Amino acid sequence: MSAIHDTDTAPAAGSRLGWAVADSWTMTRRELAHWARRPAQVVVGLLFPVMMLLMFGFLIGGGRGVDGDFRAYLVPGMLTMTMAFGLEATMLAVTQDLGKGVVDRFRSMPMNSGAVLVGRSVADMLQSAVGLLVMTAVGYAVGWRWHEGYASFLGALGLLLLLRFAMLWIGIHLAMVAGTPDMVQAVQILVWPVGFLSNAIASPASMPPWLGAVVEWNPLSATATAVRGLFGNPGAGGDSWAAAHAGLLAVAWPVALVAVFFPLAVKRFRDLGR
């Protein structure tokens, strides 16, 4: 009778999945509510990459080693860099929840333990998608065009969001390791050299051979090159293996990064209460 009773009261797998999805959506709505209460922060996050695009496109001018229309080369690169920038908002939100004991309160409630992280990641991805649309519209306004079909256009956006998803889980893990907002700001500084050590703005052909090789193997360079190819913009080719197989690397790099940092972030989150 005891075995029968346990079987009857145990939640079905479908029910557990449903509750996990519901809890994750509740946490996502919590993050979206924060947007509504702090619209200025959201607007600044959207306008910062636009400012970078306009600055490099008009004030600084042509990129090193870039032949032809620099803006056609620049816009896909800036779209890629946008996927790396702006992580500090997510990282600060994680550390603030940890510091205020919010995560501990959530962990004490009858809810899926991973819903907090999933909700944070979904909200970040939604904001990243909006940011991509804003940047694409601004690029179109300044004269950038894509020359392939809509399928290639959507494929390029998919690669960009895949990169963001990987960067997001790196940021969540580092935020829990850092623990405080002050340390997050120190970690965020490291994003800048990683972003600029790519082919987003300048061609590796204009760099010393050793530096060009490092740049071509940067995950951001792989995505930027693959996206340029899907858009039909200049800078999609190259003689090196990394440049010739940018599409493969644009998928392989984010998948590998998620495979490493997603389990690390989940494990770190589960160990917080121990």
TrEMBL record:
ABC transmembrane type-2 domain segment(s): 40-272
One GO molecular-function entry: ABC-type transporter activity
Localization per Swiss-Prot or TrEMBL: Cell membrane; Membrane
InterPro entries named among the record's database cross-references: ABC2_TM, ABC2_TM_bact-type, ABC_2_transport, Nod_factor_ABC_transporter
Coiled coil (UniProt feature): none
BP-aspect Gene Ontology terms: response to antibiotic
The family this protein is said to belong to: Belongs to the ABC-2 integral membrane protein family.
Protein name listed in UniProt: Transport permease protein
